[in-house]
Amino acid sequence: MRGGGVSVGVGVVVMVVVLAALLPTARPLPDVITIGGLFDEGDEEQKSAFRYAVDHVNRENILGRTKFNTYIEMIPPYDSFLASKKVCQLVGSGVAAIFGPQSGQTSAHVQSICDALEIPHIETRWDYRLRRDDYSVNLYPHPSSLSKAYLDLVRLFEWTSFCILYEDNDGLVRLQELLKTPSPHEFKVSIRQLPQGNNYRELLKEVRSSGEQNIILDCHTEKVGAVLKQAQQIDMMSSYHNYIITSMDLHLIEMEDFKYSGSNITGLRLIDPAREEVVALVETWTEGRVMATNRLSDGDPVLEQRDLSFWTTETALMYDAVKLFVLAMQALDNSTTVTISKLRCEGEEAWVHGNSLINYMKLVRLVGYTGLIQFDSDGFRTDFTMDIIQLGPNNLTKVGTWSRKTGTNYTRTQKETMKDVIQGLHNKTLIVSFAFNDPYIMLKESAAQLTGNERYEGFCIDLLNHIAGILKFKYTLVPVPGNDYGSRNKTTNKWNGMLQELIEKRAEMAITDLTINYEREEAVDFTMPFMNLGISILFKKPQKMAPSLFSFLSPLSLEVWMYMITAYLGVSILLYILARFTPYEWQNPHPCDPEPDTLENQFTILNCLWFAIGSLLQQGSELLPQAVSTRIVAGMWWFFTLIMISSYTANLAAFLTVERMESPIENAEDLANQDKIKYGSLATGTTFAFFRDSSLPTYVRMWNFMKDAKPSVFVKSNKDGVKKVQESKGKYAYLMESTSIEYIIERHCDLTQIGGLLDSKSYGIALRNRSPYTSAISSAILALQETSSIELLKRKWWSDRKGGKRCLTNKEEAGGSSMASELNLSNVGGVFVVLMGGMGLALVVAIGEFLLECWDISRDDQIPLMGVLSNELRFIFKCRGSSKPVRKKASESEVASTGNNIYGSDVYNYSSKNTFT
Ligand code: ASP
């Protein structure tokens, strides 16, 4: 849209609350209405803007045939006398309103004359006063709203401290909300005034040495570039530095040099250059400006420059002010007959319409080039929207909006921020502090003289190379003095080691086996963990046990041995009893004599014991059972001995081939419960802090032991700890992180890990507090984890490099030893059960055999069964003698009449079945 076709309408929304449009006007407006303009000498921009804005509304014919004429006077910025004179000249010629000037001193005079003559005074300048005169409106946002916006920005960025660099007292008014500090603990504020002249370096150096990285810069737009340039010269424009610049005209500053500095430069603006109306206006303005100043000819480069680079906020406000005035005039015209009077400064007379016109102005709502224009009941422009802009590789970009009602609305996504951070990292060289610890970072062994980063190698170096490859940054490795990881001194509250390097800004990153813990996390930033671990105990490998004299007993547990002895005695006794019960074990002692007088039982108690032990030792005996019952006993016992002896033999082989290890401690509890073996940890690290801060009774006891130990049990490095364990010959245990233990025991076969993990934690890369790179590096670590690159690196440095897997065979041996364990009842209990079952069966069979025999006798001899039973049982339970007289039939027995036999009155005759073998 160009020339006359341009609609300056700007999508104007006019909402005149009292619109008396229907009222007929008695007399039309004068054909020409003059508007006065007072501008500071040299302020051509404002003058042109005013003139061009008036031209524009004339072309738009908002008031029909009535046109506006400008009466412009230029005055020196500080000459109030001349300003008053000029105002009088203007009002004397009959003006409907006076615009300007921009200078605060002259403006006050103009305002007081306008007040007296009731002529509307329209301003577009920064004015800190909290009260305004009746006949004045100012389109510049009210200081209270602006300072609220800056407070909201500080809260958005979660600054906990910042430094205000201000040029003059206006700045302090602009930032009053920040100085009032709503909550005294919300943030720490320091305030410094920029010195006169052009050299701000000393002041900036002071800010730098105070460690402050968040700066609010309040100075004239022309000075901003110089301050930033000098800040850059003294290294205060790094990625860690954040600036909020209060100038609303950041687009006027040459920012090319700071675009890639990485520092976060934020500002607010009223004009959104992307809005269609603004684009159109800028285009026509370029031409109109040319016409108005009549200084440029076609083809002049300025004509081609259709951007905002010469458009101040005040210029845009001037446009909106003219528009506002015209709309109010229209409303006034609709409500009354407007006449313009020529007034005298010295006279009593005032303009009759001045009051109505200013009231209409305060009622109008319009969307101008500087956003929504409306006034609160006090006539202040408090409700408006501003863009939050940030400097990035693509220059100033809008990252959100602010309005009094909704506060900040930050529309920048995490991804976009990250993209900028990554871009900012490209080709940057970061200082990386590190502590030596195998295999994380070690000195490279090489015949050639190495320099720079080449001197170091290890897991962390490879990891860093991967990350640097992804994010395309460079780094310089700097070993930390003293090789300390970093712990806080509880009394001085000071950190040491790598953490100190980060806090004191000597390094940007710290890497090694650096554990993430709460205390450290409060002082610095940590990336996502790259390895998980826990504290464990490094100790001398258990000593080989000297073979014991009675090691042959080891294959079976004591319990099993006891059960076996019981089984042996039980089976022997049972065999003895059953043999006496069963008639088939009473044999003819002289087989050649078909009619013996006595029968013999081979299973005396001694023979039973002998038979059982003979079987148990797999040697046998001459004794062989004859009856089914005793054979069942023997069979079951042989089965039992077969299983037991085979198990014993097998386990004995394992016991004899494996050397048994013996360790005096099995876990942390064992360590805590003794004082012969000393134990300690690294002197400055999280292991040390873990015991110091733990409240678990075992660890508290361990901590008390360690801290009181003389000489100290703490060591300077893990290497020293390992050496101490090796040299102490089992008198020192080192509390160390499990991943490092893993590495050590693969190489030092005399060492081992004792027990499990005492805690669970992770290693991460530390960065300065609130470092912009934390998320980017975390993402790179996640990406490496997903592709298993970190796992591969671990394998490379733990197993494949520098003597890894050396102790694997030893380990396997050690694993073998644990397999040779004694057999206990749970392993062989079943065999005992089978044996007991067999014995029960044998008992039943023996009783059967016994009853059958008694039944036979009772039937053959016609003796009552009970009598036979009692006689037989009496004989059996006498348990005396292993011979028994042969039973004769009562008729055959003479002895029977005498009743003189061992059974008493009864005489028995044993059938032939007793005599066969
Ligand atoms: N990795 C530990 C640290 O970061 C060192 C240790 O305490 O073993 O402090």
From TrEMBL:
<keyword id="KW-0770">Synapse</keyword>
<feature type="domain" description="Ionotropic glutamate receptor L-glutamate and glycine-binding">
    <location>
        <begin position="439"/>
        <end position="504"/>
    </location>
</feature>
<keyword id="KW-1003">Cell membrane</keyword>
<keyword id="KW-1071">Ligand-gated ion channel</keyword>
<keyword id="KW-0407">Ion channel</keyword>
<feature type="binding site">
    <location>
        <position position="520"/>
    </location>
    <ligand>
        <name>L-glutamate</name>
    </ligand>
</feature>
<dbReference type="Pfam" id="PF10613">
    <property type="entry name" value="Lig_chan-Glu_bd"/>
</dbReference>
<dbReference type="InterPro" id="IPR015683">
    <property type="entry name" value="Ionotropic_Glu_rcpt"/>
</dbReference>
<keyword id="KW-0732">Signal</keyword>
<dbReference type="InterPro" id="IPR001320">
    <property type="entry name" value="Iontro_rcpt_C"/>
</dbReference>
<keyword id="KW-0406">Ion transport</keyword>
<dbReference type="InterPro" id="IPR001508">
    <property type="entry name" value="Iono_Glu_rcpt_met"/>
</dbReference>
<keyword id="KW-0628">Postsynaptic cell membrane</keyword>
<dbReference type="InterPro" id="IPR019594">
    <property type="entry name" value="Glu/Gly-bd"/>
</dbReference>
<keyword id="KW-0325">Glycoprotein</keyword>
<dbReference type="GO" id="GO:0008328">
    <property type="term" value="C:ionotropic glutamate receptor complex"/>
</dbReference>
<feature type="binding site">
    <location>
        <position position="515"/>
    </location>
    <ligand>
        <name>L-glutamate</name>
    </ligand>
</feature>
<feature type="binding site">
    <location>
        <position position="687"/>
    </location>
    <ligand>
        <name>L-glutamate</name>
    </ligand>
</feature>
<dbReference type="GO" id="GO:0045211">
    <property type="term" value="C:postsynaptic membrane"/>
</dbReference>
<keyword id="KW-0472">Membrane</keyword>
<dbReference type="Pfam" id="PF00060">
    <property type="entry name" value="Lig_chan"/>
</dbReference>
<feature type="site" description="Interaction with the cone snail toxin Con-ikot-ikot">
    <location>
        <position position="692"/>
    </location>
</feature>
<keyword id="KW-1015">Disulfide bond</keyword>
<keyword id="KW-0675">Receptor</keyword>
<protein>
    <recommendedName>
        <fullName>Glutamate receptor 1</fullName>
    </recommendedName>
</protein>
<keyword id="KW-1133">Transmembrane helix</keyword>
<feature type="signal peptide">
    <location>
        <begin position="1"/>
        <end position="28"/>
    </location>
</feature>
<comment type="similarity">
    <text>Belongs to the glutamate-gated ion channel (TC 1.A.10.1) family.</text>
</comment>
<feature type="domain" description="Ionotropic glutamate receptor C-terminal">
    <location>
        <begin position="429"/>
        <end position="800"/>
    </location>
</feature>
<keyword id="KW-0813">Transport</keyword>
<dbReference type="Pfam" id="PF01094">
    <property type="entry name" value="ANF_receptor"/>
</dbReference>
<feature type="binding site">
    <location>
        <position position="737"/>
    </location>
    <ligand>
        <name>L-glutamate</name>
    </ligand>
</feature>
<dbReference type="InterPro" id="IPR028082">
    <property type="entry name" value="Peripla_BP_I"/>
</dbReference>
<feature type="transmembrane region" description="Helical">
    <location>
        <begin position="828"/>
        <end position="852"/>
    </location>
</feature>
<keyword id="KW-0812">Transmembrane</keyword>
<feature type="site" description="Interaction with the cone snail toxin Con-ikot-ikot">
    <location>
        <position position="488"/>
    </location>
</feature>
<feature type="transmembrane region" description="Helical">
    <location>
        <begin position="560"/>
        <end position="579"/>
    </location>
</feature>
<dbReference type="GO" id="GO:0004970">
    <property type="term" value="F:glutamate-gated receptor activity"/>
</dbReference>
<dbReference type="InterPro" id="IPR001828">
    <property type="entry name" value="ANF_lig-bd_rcpt"/>
</dbReference>
<feature type="site" description="Crucial to convey clamshell closure to channel opening">
    <location>
        <position position="665"/>
    </location>
</feature>
<feature type="transmembrane region" description="Helical">
    <location>
        <begin position="637"/>
        <end position="658"/>
    </location>
</feature>
<feature type="disulfide bond">
    <location>
        <begin position="749"/>
        <end position="807"/>
    </location>
</feature>
